[in-house]
Amino acid sequence: MIRLEKRPRPSRTFAWATPLLAVLATFFFGGVLFALLGKDPVQSILTIFWQPLFGEFSFFYRPQLLIKGAPLVLIAIGLSLGFRAGIWNIGAEGQYIMGALFGAGVGLAFYPAESVFIFPLMVIAGAFGGWAWAMIPAVLKVRFGTNEILVSLMLVYVAEQFLASMSLGLMKNPEGFGFPGSRNLQQYDSAHNAEIITNSGMHWGVVAAMIAVIFAYVLLARHRLGFAVRVTGEAPRAARFSGVNPGRLILFCLGTSGMLAGLAGLFEVSGPAGQVSIDFNVGYGFTAIIVAFLGRLHPVGIVLAGLLMALTYIGGDIAQSQLGLPAAAIQVFQGMLLFFLLAFDLFTNYRLRFGRTEAA
Amino acid sequence: MDLSAINPILLIAALMSAATPILLAATGELVVERAGVLNLGVEGMMITGAICGFAIAVETGSPTTGFIAAAVGGAVLSLLFALLTQVTLANQVASGLALTLFGLGISSLLGQGYVGVKPPRMPDVNFGPLSDIPVIGQIFFSHDPLLYVGLLLVAGVWAVLRFTRAGLVLRAVGENHDAAHALGYKVVRIRTLAIMFGGALAGMGGAYISLIRVPQWTEGMTAGVGWIALALVVFASWKPWRVLLGAYLFGGITQLQLNLQGAGVAIPVEYLAMSPYVITIVVLVMLSADKSAAPGSLGRSFHASS
């Protein structure tokens, strides 16, 4: 007879070991999945996790790590603040789209003027777009007690439709021969989020992600607001007594995560993606949820988790072209990771006891 | 623009069909939530059901078998959620999200070979002379069998929850799991069964989209219907008949929006397409003031020792 016994306090060892265990289990079951798809499991795993870092063309893939990792980290940092306090912003994908639209909109409005002020203005507009979109669920929750999970999610579908209408209408490239999609911002110097150091993958989005990580770390470790976030998550009633204003906290957490998601969208659309198009968003907003949990909602953990997740994207692309592994397999792989993580988390708070249950 | 092209009788008949996927999924989720579990994985279970049902219907040539497969697929996927939340006591919100992300991935993986394939058609129920009655016949007696199954399920769930001992136990587990446990009811087992029931209905709802509403397979084709179903349970204050009302309201909006698109209304298509989501938010706001109807233990983990 196996039973669970609640630990007096969460195990620190398991808090760190859980992500590693989850990654190992995902390797194993991912391998089984690849074998079921008729691919050599060992070769598939190596292709995904070894080739981008140390393979023949790693000089090409390594910068990609920063390019794909930065938006994930940026979004996940914001989400983690809310998740810690029990405020569930699930609509980062929508905030990402709105940030990109606001930012790109400002850039396109100035075309073809050249000025050093255009890009900073776009950054502000992008942050504002994401923030404003997140304020909808936040204000509704504070004012009416509406469920923020459902509202923020519904807004993703609204944002997607809005994106489609923008890339077919207002923002459509007038010189684009009627194809949907905006002008390419990569070809517009003042609005281009170019690499800061050539061939390093280092663009302004990466810088912003680093700043966000430091900001979050300091906030959680040192600042009163960070204390409010932690207390609200662990003991909501105690938080109320210690003077935390729940409404203000909701506005802060959703606003910050929306702002960071909006920034991620702006840096993506003005850099790697280049243009507003119907499907320029690739689900970073949802993958960032996995990143946040895998990183244990801790800033440093999120950086590591973001890089790992970026690796699965890059390695997945390689596996797709070299081994013919379907792109969806990587999505399943990522989903599995979150499953195992949640399951193994049991050992952080409980311990297994073997033997008979004594009669109560 | 030609609004007279919209035939109100056909509109009502079509809205019943548009409402059925939401109705099935929301009825399942209602049972899950009445048992005290918040499963946010409805979207993932629906899309998995959509591809399971589609694939099996295409392979066997039988839509009925497809629907059974969809129910099984949804239930099996929901077992993962049950395992996470009931056995390993993981956070229900996070587990539900994991289920959706995983379901979206697995469905597009399974669906690789089925893009562009036509599924076998499910014939409408033959009501004989009833369907020849003007107006009423067209509205009520011209549908596929699953639509009626959906209606029967609502009635069944209502009756079971209200009049039977099993329903009482289920509600007790949802209201106060500690008290139910003290009375000797198997909280985890009852909840697991409820979760599987919800998964099966969500799967069938998904298959209704891929086999009857759209008759084809495209990745992510449930496009948020699962989330609307979740919102609907709140809208319905956890009452089965209100789920029916809500589903028809949303089915009506979806259908009207499509009709307006067809009639060439001057509003851009994208703005019409976002209307069901916007209206869902508006309805959520209007109803969010009253949370008194929510089951007491909703969303809380249960562990016998704590």
From TrEMBL, chain A:
Keyword field: Cell membrane, Membrane, Transmembrane, Transmembrane helix
Subcellular location: Cell membrane
InterPro entries: ABC_transp_permease
GO cellular component, one term: plasma membrane
Pfam families: BPD_transp_2
MF GO annotations: transmembrane transporter activity
Transmembrane segments: 12-37, 65-83, 95-111, 117-140, 149-171, 202-220, 249-267, 287-311, 323-344
Entry membrane topology: Multi-pass membrane protein
The protein, known as: ABC transporter permease
Species annotation: Roseobacter ponti
UniProt lineage: Bacteria, Pseudomonadati, Pseudomonadota, Alphaproteobacteria, Rhodobacterales
UniProtKB/TrEMBL annotation, chain B:
Superkingdom of source: Bacteria
Transmembrane segments: 6-25, 37-58, 64-84, 96-115, 135-161, 193-214, 220-238, 271-289
Annotated keywords: Cell membrane, Membrane, Transmembrane, Transmembrane helix
Keyword Plastid annotated: no
Main location: membrane
GO CC terms, sorted: plasma membrane
Family matches, as InterPro entries: ABC_transp_permease
A Pfam family: BPD_transp_2
Any one GO molecular function term: transmembrane transporter activity
Bilayer topology: Multi-pass membrane protein
Compartments (UniProt record): Cell membrane
Name of the featured protein: ABC transporter permease
Naturally occurring in which organism (per UniProt): Roseobacter ponti
